């Protein structure tokens, strides 16, 4: 039984390591493959073309897909849609599917439960204590992928909020210079490299494929789920429908977004003193009281 647990833990750790390697070095491998394709002049064989595909797509992804087919009954449609939205916000929807994420959560939960069970056994804990540790490991392993995806999505939303005013300034300059809105977006994509430019690139691809610009902008707003970007897209859509000048709308939106960002910073600064009270009361004030009142308390105790 112990050997089976160790084998399962090794396989799950290997799969998680490969997934992490794929997330971290995906862009670098794609660039190296493109450079190799441009530099290399000889024709590649079918085997070489297959070996150029990342190991995650060749070996790990098919395994996760087969396991997800077994577990599909445990994933309601609403839950699959929710996981898909989280992956889209974190920009991981091309690397992993919601069903594969469910398999990873199951594997991580089982690995966490087995590891903490073995830890409790090594420390000589009783059966009930080992069960509690195993339950804690199960919950930790189950929620760790969600925590990673949510944190990645939150960081991406913050990056979009931070870069939006500068992008709007570049859009305003491009539109006032005589470019159309789509041409200004293409200029922004060429000059900037950020999460927002990636969203603009996807939106332009959808427009080229035949989707109306209004629908593409609404889909981008729903996909990113950033309030400032939703306000910007709504203003552009309204200006397009009413025939208002896009340049004035862009300049006004840039000023308003900068003002809202300044207000958020001021709000965070006003909250800082209140948040500082907790560590001061728990850690700083007791140390000060010990230093100031400690000698007096000792003298009083010696006197009585």
Automatic annotation (TrEMBL):
It is a multi-pass membrane protein. The keyword Ribosomal protein does not apply. It comes from the Bacteria. GO terms for cellular component: plasma membrane. Keywords: Cell membrane, Membrane, Transmembrane, Transmembrane helix. The keyword Transmembrane applies. It is found in: Cell membrane. It holds the Pfam family T2SSF. InterPro entries: T2SS_GspF_dom. Residues 168-293 form the Type II secretion system protein GspF domain. This is Bacterial type II secretion system protein F domain protein. It comes from Pelotomaculum schinkii. The lineage of its organism: Bacteria, Bacillati, Bacillota, Clostridia, Eubacteriales.
């Amino acid at each position: 039984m112990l050997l089976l647990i160790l084998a399962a833990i090794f396989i799950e750790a290997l799969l998680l390591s490969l997934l992490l390697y794929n997330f971290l070095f995906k862009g670098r491998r794609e660039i190296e493959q493109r450079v190799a394709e441009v530099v290399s002049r000889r024709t590649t064989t079918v085997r070489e073309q297959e070996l150029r595909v990342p190991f995650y797509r060749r070996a790990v992804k098919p395994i996760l897909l087969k396991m997800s087919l077994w577990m599909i009954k445990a994933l309601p449609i609403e839950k699959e849609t929710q996981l898909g939205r989280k992956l889209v916000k974190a920009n991981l929807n091309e690397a992993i599917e919601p069903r594969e994420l469910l398999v990873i959560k199951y594997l991580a939960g089982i690995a966490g439960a087995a590891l903490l069970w073995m830890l409790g056994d090594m420390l000589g804990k009783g059966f009930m204590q080992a069960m509690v540790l195993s339950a804690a490991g199960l919950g930790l392993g189950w929620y760790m992928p969600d925590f990673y995806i949510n944190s990645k999505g939150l960081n991406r939303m913050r990056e979009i909020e931070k870069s939006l005013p500068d992008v709007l300034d570049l859009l305003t300059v491009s539109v006032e210079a005589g470019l159309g809105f789509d041409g200004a977006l293409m200029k922004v994509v060429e000059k900037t490299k950020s999460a927002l430019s990636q969203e603009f690139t996807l939106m332009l691809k959808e427009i080229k494929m035949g989707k109306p610009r209004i629908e593409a902008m609404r889909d981008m707003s729903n996909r990113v789920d950033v309030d400032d970007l939703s306000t910007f897209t709504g203003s552009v859509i309204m200006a397009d429908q009413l025939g208002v000048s896009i340049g004035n709308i862009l300049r006004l939106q840039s000023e308003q977004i900068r003002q809202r960002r300044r207000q958020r910073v001021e709000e965070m600064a006003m909250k800082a003193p209140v948040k500082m009270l907790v560590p001061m009361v728990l850690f700083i004030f007791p140390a000060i009281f010990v230093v100031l009142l400690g000698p007096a308390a000792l003298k009083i105790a010696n006197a009585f």
